[in-house]
């Protein structure tokens, strides 16, 4: 149900933030795919807490354990189960929150829906849940790299009102990871880091925008009508905690253009399968199907709901209470959300790669 | 596959724009629901072509035929099949397009994916495909009205750069439908209509933003992790033709706020199930689950790709050609997209209503 | 929901027995597949009522109408919608049944579940619902024939206690269709026809066993654990009206053998992909995956529940009533069930062919 | 994909027989359900190897570890992840099998499909995979017991040719578990145990039939057309290792009856929701929907493929080899298959309970 994603390359995650473990089952992965476990661990390291001064101080090593589906570095075609134990749990930190609803957090809605909640912390609403996504996404990335040389790059575009101006042509993973905020603009990244630290000192938080670029996308991925590639990407990214908006290609700003300005002109080509366009307002997708251009997206992340400042709120009886979060939390989720965006995009593309292969490559090739 | 949507309240659409018919099967609808066929026809009338000077002149009555699942105005609990015949087909209009890829349209990607295309017109990429969605959505609306008194209202917020300022408290369907552009701001709507007519005269097109408001949403709809309510809404709306962006609640602009500014404070309440917040930056959803506040969304629609102006493009051999669309098309899709937005939102909410009932109302009640 | 079948080669059927029409949407079919409409009509003719003295006299031409997804004899890769109008409806025939539950029929359970029923006749429980299955199955058969030269043959093995002894090596469609009971044993078929006629005269009915043989099954179809090929075949066939039992390979009788007797020995082969076995107790499937041998199944069909004899039963108030069915019904469903079995088997195999291609043929080829 | 089962009460299993662990995620379980972990462990003990002289000597404690979704004995409504470590692994036992295909086992088909296999033992085809099913089924059993007082009882009906005659009215779990073969007929069970021991001594194996009875089934579970209750039960049970046949109610033997003999007459009743029938050839299901009578099924299990006797077979190069299994295996799977049957039936019924509640209890109650 709600903890599964994908049609035939399909992940199912589990785990509460302060329970025994979090993890994922990845089913439907092709057999005999070479998988480098270090690359999985590396993505988890990019998303792990405690990685820098501007993330939550919760200190988790987040060491991945592979329980099934991989043998001597190759996939078996059977479910790949991956597990990370929760270690640095401090349920006590949230004791004062147990029956208090943090404003704009999931505490209240979980209580209204289920009438019961995980002991403490965010339960399934915690960012720890994304460990399973990131681990499975790291396998998806390797699948895409192996078959299509596809490269997924996400970075912090804006923090609060500090915006970077990135040359997408040249951007690389190395640049993105060169600083702790994951904005590949050296100068601007320093300002961003300062802003986050300042807000943290104030017991406050901020949000921003992550941009994602996918290179070497095969044309033909995606489908008409409901399972359009941009629709599945939108769902995937809007399922990440704290997201409030999604844009593909020209997004909202494209709506200020006329059709004659917005249309992406095709460039003549001897090889129709390698058709390119002069501009990319479409963001690499037309009619729900990739056209071979880069996929380009932007995702809005709201400021972290859990803040140190005192706030008025209510408890599970509806009575007014004052609260001040003691739990460890990120003053800004974006630096750690970068690998989550990568992962969700990889999961969508891997699923659509297999789906397209299933339906359209039986006859053509 | 790609033409089905929903988990247990599930629609499957079919039909090409110039084929025999378009339609939908709606499966999983509760039995004994009173359904007014006139309300279904009314929604189709709101989306039908030829309804005004600013829509495509293709003249289709779009008369709904119910083939199954309803008896004397009540649902049977079995699949509801609904059909609309294509009548005013002029495949000849698109003869010059058959092997020509309209820029930023689905022609090229369909060809790359399938290697074969519907005779003419947009095939499944045509807005005619949405007839099935709108018909099924009209049933979903009645289900939501019957069980929760839920009301879904969408309207044109902006056309090109002409923006309206709407008082959401007072807005009504009557106001929205009081003018042909479906912007409930009388003065601004006149400007919008003028702009669309002007661009039409120029053989050009424009886009804009539709806003959607849902009142009386029961709390508890939606689920953690992947099937968050906002994620399913994002997918539903980004699956509509011509969409480029989606926002829930504060959207992209909310990312300029600090956490202390963005958080929606709860108001104390004796009845916890009727909890409200002082602001609604969350847009009615927290942690993927509705909190009982209004759901508020914005959707970006790009300018129509098919324009009358001459454009350079390529044909299926990759050779450069000049084209000038003769087919009938909308200079701006937004007025007709309003009922499509309503429909997709209704389908998502109806499905989540049943899903929540399945999992969470067995014990509670 | 319950009216859809298949994961990526997916059918959704609709229609009540005495409503406007019955039909099907087939989604996920590969594009550019050559489809002969006559072969679809031919399968419908094999299942249509009124085809002989031993079937229901309801006279329906069951002429197929293709609404979408096929252009000039080739699939577009988009949903194929197919429709058959109900013509020879006589709702009056069932007037005396409207609130009476036929013993062992779906009348009672539909009433208990939905609290409302189709006007008359069996609604979705009628054999007319299978029209959509047979039409879609005829497309699946052509897909399987085109890609793998796969041939599906079903026939009547036993009627009541009259059993045939068939040489499976030589059996052909022509033989099967050479008589109206569809038993390819000329002598025994005459006895079967006599038995059915005799029971019909008595206002009674009978059941029996259909056998199914699939030749040229590619190895590798099916999956471990839940979606084993035999499990999906069992579900497909047990979803046909009136089925009470399913066997693959040695079935129940194989349980009387010892392992050393039951095991199918492999025959050495230079080409491992063409591995064969000396016996076929496995029925062509091992561990849920096809091994390249013929798939062999048997399906038990109970005697028709609707009979002309007077029976004691109850009405919707639970009161005892006497009933004697006036509606037109089959004294034995098996002759018309043969094409239904073919269709369901074809749908399962086509779906698994695409699924296997998706997961396992990306790397191998 | 293939390792998931259920629509909204959904399990996903993972794990190879000789990997790190096997387990399951159960998603969609209602919140606030009281779950007794001992009852889960108890079901695992019923299926664990090494429990008696007539099962495999592999000695696994199979101690369940709950990783998420349960807090202080109550479900949270979030995914319940359960894990069992593999301890008594002896991959060496199967060394001589690594590239040898055991006749009638999954070795050959896994190799043909995936081109790669788990290190040794059966991988996903091993009975160890069913641990996840049994653990999740034990939760489903508690759900059914809590809401409907439903009781699922399975037992060994026949071993090889030794058949028991059971009085279904009186049968109890205590009787079933009173002997190691799980046949509640004391005298016959002794013969069965002797037969199994004798065949084990000969290095041979046997199969048989398990019968399943479900009491207190609410009417209205199941759906028309494809997701008929008996169809989902057939799939569930035919997905268990070694199954070759499935019967509901009268099964194959019912096909020897006339309609007038086979029909189950309704008994008049003041309360229509408690309608009963004089006989139960339907096996508790009519038209795909439960009628409130007991559900009755029979499942055929073939003799274990892995035997100690020397057999001729082939290796992965297609060359002929002689083999004699050294690995520990069951001479007869039925005693341990009893809790597997219980589990699969529970999973199907729990899913259909929620599905029926979702669609049909919104209006009625």
Structural class of chain A: alpha+beta
Strand order of the largest sheet of chain A: 1-2-3-7-4
How would you name the CATH homologous superfamily of chain A?
A: Chorismate synthase AroC
Sheet-strand content of chain A, in percent, reads 15-25%
Gross morphology of chain A:
globular
| Rg of chain A computed from alpha carbons, rounded to a whole number of angstroms | 21 Å
Number of continuous helical runs of chain A: 8
| Low-confidence parts of chain A | none
Series of H and E elements of chain A: EEEHEEEEHHEEHHEHEHEEEEEEEH
Largest sheet of chain A: 5 strands, antiparallel
Straight-line N-to-C gap of chain A = 35 Å
Show the largest interface.
A-B, 123 and 123 residues
Describe the structure.
4 copies of one chain form a homotetramer. Chain A has 365 residues and is an alpha+beta fold. The first copy, chain A, has one domain: Chorismate synthase AroC (Chorismate synthase, AroC fold, 4-Layer Sandwich). Chain A is 28% helix and 21% strand. In chain A, the strands form 6 sheets. Chain A has a 5-stranded antiparallel β-sheet, with helices on one face. Chain A has a 5-stranded antiparallel β-sheet with strand order 9-8-10-16-11. The longest helix of chain A is centred in the C-terminal third of the chain and has 31 residues. The radius of gyration of chain A is 21 Å and the shape is globular. The mean pLDDT of chain A is 92. Chains B and C meet through β2, β3, β4, β6 and β7 of B and β2, β3, β4, β6 and β7 of C.
């Amino acid at each position: 149900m709600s903890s599964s994603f994908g049609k035939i390359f399909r992940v199912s995650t589990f785990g509460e933030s302060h329970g025994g473990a979090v993890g994922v089952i990845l089913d439907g992965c092709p057999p005999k795919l070479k998988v480098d476990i270090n690359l999985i661990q590396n993505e988890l390291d990019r998303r792990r807490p405690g990685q820098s001064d501007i993330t939550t101080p919760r200190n988790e090593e987040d060491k991945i354990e592979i329980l099934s589906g991989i043998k001597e570095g190759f996939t078996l075609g059977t479910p790949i189960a991956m597990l990370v134990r929760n270690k640095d749990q401090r349920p006590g930190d949230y004791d004062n929150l147990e029956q208090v609803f943090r404003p704009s957090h999931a505490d209240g809605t979980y209580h209204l829906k289920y009438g019961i909640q995980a002991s403490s912390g965010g339960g399934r609403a915690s960012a720890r849940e994304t460990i399973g996504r990131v681990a499975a996404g790291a396998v998806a990335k390797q699948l895409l790299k192996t078959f299509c040389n596809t490269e997924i790059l996400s970075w912090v575009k804006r923090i609060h009102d500090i915006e970077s101006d990135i040359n997408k042509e040249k951007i690389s993973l190395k640049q993105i990871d060169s600083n702790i905020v994951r904005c590949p603009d050296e100068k601007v990244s320093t300002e961003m880091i300062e802003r986050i630290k300042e807000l943290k000192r104030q017991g406050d938080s901020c949000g921003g925008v992550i941009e994602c670029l996918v290179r070497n996308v095969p044309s033909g991925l995606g489908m008409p009508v409901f399972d359009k590639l941009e629709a599945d990407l939108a769902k995937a990214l809007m399922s990440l905690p704290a997201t409030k908006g999604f844009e593909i290609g020209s997004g909202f700003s494209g709506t200020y253009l006329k059709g004659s300005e917005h249309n992406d002109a095709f460039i003549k080509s001897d090889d129709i399968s390698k058709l390119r366009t002069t501009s990319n307002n479409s963001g690499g997708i037309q009619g729900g199907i990739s056209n071979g251009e880069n996929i380009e997206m932007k995702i809005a992340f709201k400021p972290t709901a859990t803040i140190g400042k005192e706030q008025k709120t209510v408890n599970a009886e509806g009575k007014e209470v004052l609260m001040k979060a003691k739990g460890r939390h990120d003053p800004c989720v974006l630096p750690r959300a970068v690998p989550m965006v990568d992962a969700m995009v990889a999961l969508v593309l891997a699923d659509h790669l297999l789906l397209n292969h299933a339906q359209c490559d039986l006859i053509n090739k």
